[in-house]
Amino acid sequence: MATYVTSDLHGEYDRFIRLLDEINLKDEDTLFVLGDVIDRGPHPIKLLQKLMTMPNVICLVGNHELMGLEVLEFLNKEITEDSIEELDVNMTNNIITWQMNGCKTTTKEFHQLSAEERQDVIDFIRDFSVYEKVEVNGQKYLLVHAGLGNYSPEKDIEDYSLYELLWMRADYEQKYFDDVYVISGHTPTQIIEANPKPGYIFRNNNHIAIDCGACFPEGRLAALCLDTEKEYYIE
Known about the structure:
Blueprint: E1 3-6, H1 13-23, E2 30-33, H2 44-52, E3 57-59, H3 63-75, H4 81-85, H5 89-100, H6 104-111, H7 115-126, E4 131-136, E5 139-144, H8 162-166, E6 180-184, E7 202-204, E8 207-209, E9 221-225, E10 231-234
Parallel strand pairs: 1-2, 2-3, 5-6, 6-8
Antiparallel strand pairs: 1-9, 4-5, 7-8, 9-10
Helix pairs in contact: 3-5, 3-7
């Protein structure tokens, strides 16, 4: 029984299937996906539907799910006078923001589903965790999409806002905890200045950054086994 972590799949369905083969995920293993399953890549909805069939996968919400969920719920409604009235300035801004962040592939596949399938996808995303605490071989880990924005040692994890957990980038130069490793995605390791191997998993000050830019040119999908600390990459 092993525990794996990956993140920022961004619709890269084929790479994800190859990753499952690479880590040889078994039914008794657990795989944590640290958000941003959707958007940018070619098959975000197909990827969500695959994850829905995998009871040993635990998904965390990313900023892309946070952006998309309200819009998907709106798109799944029957067009009525009431639903049209919901298309206010706030909803319009949400749609524009999501469009600017690569939602085209998500909405395209979403529209191809039946109404029931759409609702199943929405319900699945709504059940994503905001964070997870895991202990493997006596080592404690905090799993979160982006990091702990506005970090303070006096704050409990419950005191952080969704913006701080899902949007604000981790400060890899600051050690948040002495006895807990924080594993996060969101920030492609290609843009972490202190990373000696851009595009590969970055470790510093009890941080582990695992978004290796799978949806970008020359990026890769990464996974980490917490039991062995072995890193896996799909180019």
